[in-house]
Amino acid sequence: MASDIRNIVILTGAGISAESGVATFRGPDGLWEGHRVEDVATPEAFVRDPALVHKFYDARRSALAAVEPNAAHRALARLDAEWPGELLLVTQNVDDLHERAGSKRLIHMHGELKSGWCLRCNQRSAWNGAMGQGAECPACGTTGLVRPDIVWFGEIPYRMDEIESALQACDLFVSIGTSGAVYPAAGFVQTAHYCGAQTLEMNLDPSLGSYLFDEARVGPAGKLVPAWVE
Ligand code: BJW
């Protein structure tokens, strides 16, 4: 890494977890029982058919138990532990593979599968298996009003102020395994670039926004990320 780099922001998407066996959203296998993610990941879908939405997230939550962090997650955790400057890992993923690999300076901008959000008292709590069946909120005791703590289309992602500040201050912005189809994450490269950062993409295929990066490396994250971190 160039010696003038001190502050790094890394954005990850579904592609970084693909080699762990977690399905991506928009690839050939990107449908869930015939539904597009846009049809199940919206507040309107939850009002229309909460059972379907809970089923979608229950399936994804159960699948988590069978997967492990891969070489790319582990390499980023190593970088986090050893990097002396500022570093922020922003993930769009709702799995917990970055923290299981050991990353600490981490923001889940689209929420977390293992968290529930009570619409009555506004508290977040660890998800328990019965929440989707109308179990009580552990904070206020109300039943049936806990939804998955996931940022759906039309909702504001978490901790945007911190992310924006980090993007404006970084010297290097790295995007890994994301199609660049979903905003605001797809626009981070432009913010970082306008604020003077170098920009690097690592993706299996060039993303929709590849042309915006100073450098785009094409290949699997499990190979590219450890090679970049070393
Ligand atoms: C590999 C690999 C390997 C595979 N190695 N790579 C029109 C224009 C612009 C914006 C909008 C618009 N209409 C609506 C909007 C806004 C909307 C949006 O962006 N819509 C688009 C679809 C157009 N965005 C929102 O609504 C967001 N909120 C918002 O904008 O609020 C307003 C606001 C915000 C901030 C400031 C001010 C105002 C909220 C978006 C919420 C997204 N939610 C989801 C679902 C929840 C999480 C979940 O259930 O898991 O998040 S959608 C889904 O897409 C999920 C993902 O996090 C997100 C991104 O997907 P990702 O990670 O890029 O995955 P894929 O599958 O698309 O791509 C995988 C990539 O990996 C591919 O490129 C592969 O090649 C690659 N790959 N194997 C490396 N081994």
Heterogens: ligand BJW
Q: What CATH architecture of the largest domain would you give?
A: 3-Layer(aba) Sandwich
State the CATH topology of the largest domain: Rossmann fold
Q: How far from one another are the termini?
A: 9 Å
What is the averaged pLDDT score?
A: 93
- Assign the structural class, choosing from mainly alpha, mainly beta, alpha/beta, alpha+beta, or little secondary structure: alpha/beta
Report Rg: 18 Å
Share of residues in helices: 25-40%
CATH class of the largest domain: Alpha Beta
What is the name of the CATH superfamily of the largest domain?
TPP-binding domain
How many helices does DSSP assign? 9
How many β-strands, per DSSP?
9
Largest sheet: 6 strands, parallel
Beta strand %: 15-25%
Uncertain spans: none
Read across the widest sheet, the strand sequence of neighbours is 3-2-1-7-8-9
| SSE pattern | EHHHHHEHEEEEHEHEEH
Folded structure, characterized:
This protein has two domains: 1-21 and 68-110 and 156-230, TPP-binding domain (Rossmann fold, 3-Layer(aba) Sandwich), CATH 3.40.50.1220; 23-66 and 113-150, SIR2/SIRT2 'Small Domain' (2-Layer Sandwich). Strands 3-2-1-7-8-9 form a six-stranded parallel beta sheet, sandwiched between helices. Strands 5-4-6 form a three-stranded antiparallel beta sheet. The chain is globular and about 55 Å long. With 230 residues, it is α/β, with parallel strands linked by helices. The chain has nine helices and nine strands. Residues 13-15, 18-19, 24-27, 30, 37, 41, 92, 94, 110, 150-157, 160, 177-179, 181-184, 203-205, 207, 220-221 line the site of ligand BJW.
